[in-house]
UniProtKB/TrEMBL annotation:
Alphabetized Pfam families for the sequence: Rieske (PF00355)
Main subcellular location: membrane
Annotated PANTHER family: CHOLESTEROL 7-DESATURASE NVD (PTHR21266:SF32), IRON-SULFUR DOMAIN CONTAINING PROTEIN (PTHR21266)
Keyword Oxidoreductase: yes
Domain named Rieske: residues: 89-199
Protein name in the entry: Rieske domain-containing protein
Region feature Disordered, mapped onto this chain: 54-73
Organism of provenance: Dovyalis caffra
GO function term, MF aspect, one: oxidoreductase activity
SUPFAM superfamilies: Bet v1-like, ISP domain
Compartments in which it is found: Membrane
Gene Ontology CC terms: cytoplasm; membrane
Residues forming coiled coils: none
Low complexity: compositionally biased ranges: 54-69
């Protein structure tokens, strides 16, 4: 099975609603995404119109960089420190979507994993999704009456540490073969953060306590009760790189999502959709991601590899509500076609296939610069993905929400 090329989420730019003769409520848009089906997103806004702080701290000390039309070169930098895709925290599933009575299977970074509730330790666990006996998927198993994860194929049972506690086929008066290290299941470090289960894709014992040294990206508003949070999950049939570009591209919203997402009226309406100049810039870029500025809307942070965080400052109300009407959404059709064209020319030569002359493309250019500089222009699949794209789903399926 190929590594899944499906990701999910709604676009990152969420225009604010207006308050008559006052200020707009600050909006925060947080997206966790990863190269696997089912990524999560959270939209939160302040319960009151009180001005909120803007958070601009990033986890490293990146150098200053400006991305714009005067810097088109995006070739891979062989001298830069390389980004380790398997030394990061990845969101797996929203807690609200998990059933404690059954195990749940996922594929992340080409790894088959199983998420299950260990009631003996009252926490979510993430294991390798293969029973050591005959490699049957543990995600198809069950939680037995003692709270152990049981393989559906031959009934082997495992505790929260991955130790095999019971082999039905073993003689009761024979040697305790279940205690062999070969009978254990690989356990990945995991944690619950911002109401999501996260995991560290390396089961080496040296990372057992990695949470004490490095934590998942933190967004204060998501845990602040003075904000309203809306969380959801959405599957979209295209890959990681194209998904991030989509999230970081507010200029496409009036067109690709016409009538679906609300947009702020422009002073001069040049067409039906009301598209306008978008002033974006990247101020800091380093191996951990980048900080961007959206002059009209606020700011943006990309926490590599899988969290995008946008937030807006209060602005004076112009006196009109934001326009909206019925319409259709065809973004998936465009992006799947774009993905294939970029794949044909090669990810590291992205700039040769695309003409990005305006400041509206600064975040997309910034992301491609980060990807090329620190990861050779592509995700490190460690041989788990050949690079071939799956067949494009029929148009009717792509448009079916």
């Amino acid at each position: 099975m190929e590594v899944v090329r499906t990701s999910s989420v709604s676009p990152i730019h969420i225009p604010t609603s207006t308050i008559k003769k006052g200020f707009t409520k600050p909006k925060f848009w947080n997206v966790q995404f990863h190269p696997m089906p089912g990524s999560s997103f959270s939209r939160i806004h302040k319960k009151t119109s009180q001005k909120s702080k803007l958070f601009t701290t990033i986890s490293s000390s990146p150098s200053s960089v400006s991305t714009g039309t005067h810097e088109p070169e995006l070739e891979a930098d062989s001298q830069a420190e390389k980004f380790d895709w398997y030394a990061q925290w990845y969101p797996v599933m929203l807690v609200c979507d998990l059933d404690k009575r059954v195990p749940h299977g996922k594929k992340v970074m080409g790894l088959d994993i199983v998420v299950w509730w260990d009631r003996n330790e009252s926490t979510w666990k993430v294991f390798d999704d293969a029973c050591p006996h005959r490699l049957a998927p543990l995600s198809e198993g069950r939680i037995d009456q003692w709270g152990r994860l049981q393989c559906v194929y031959h009934g082997w049972c495992f505790n929260g540490s991955g130790d095999c506690k019971f082999i039905p086929q073993a003689p009761t008066d024979g040697p305790p073969i279940h205690t062999s290290k070969k009978a254990c299941v690989a356990v990945y470090p995991s944690t619950v953060h911002h109401d999501m289960v996260w995991f560290w894709p390396n089961s080496d014992p040296q990372y057992k306590d990695i949470i004490t040294k490095k934590q998942p990206p933190s967004i204060p508003e998501l845990d602040d009760p003075s904000f309203i949070k809306l969380t959801g999950c959405r599957d979209i049939p295209y890959g990681y790189e194209v998904l991030i570009e989509n999230l970081m591209d507010p200029a496409h919203v009036p067109y690709a999502h016409y009538g679906i997402m609300k947009t702020r009226p422009t002073k001069v309406k040049t067409d039906r959709e009301g598209g306008s100049s978008v002033e974006l810039s990247v101020t800091k870029l380093g191996m951990d991601g980048f900080v961007g500025n959206q002059n009209q809307f606020g700011a943006n942070k990309f926490f590599a590899p899988c969290t995008s965080y946008a937030y807006s400052s209060p602005v004076v109300d112009q006196g009109d509500d934001i326009a909206s009407s019925a319409g259709t959404e065809k973004a998936s059709i465009y992006l799947i076609r774009d993905e294939r064209k970029i794949m044909d020319i090669g990810p590291a030569k992205w700039q040769k296939a695309c003409f990005v002359p305006t400041k509206a493309d600064a975040f997309v250019v910034g992301f491609r610069r980060w990807l090329n500089k620190y990861s050779g222009g592509q995700v490190d699949w460690r041989g788990k993905y050949s690079g071939a794209l799956p067949p494009t789903p029929p148009r009717e399926q792509l448009l079916d929400r």
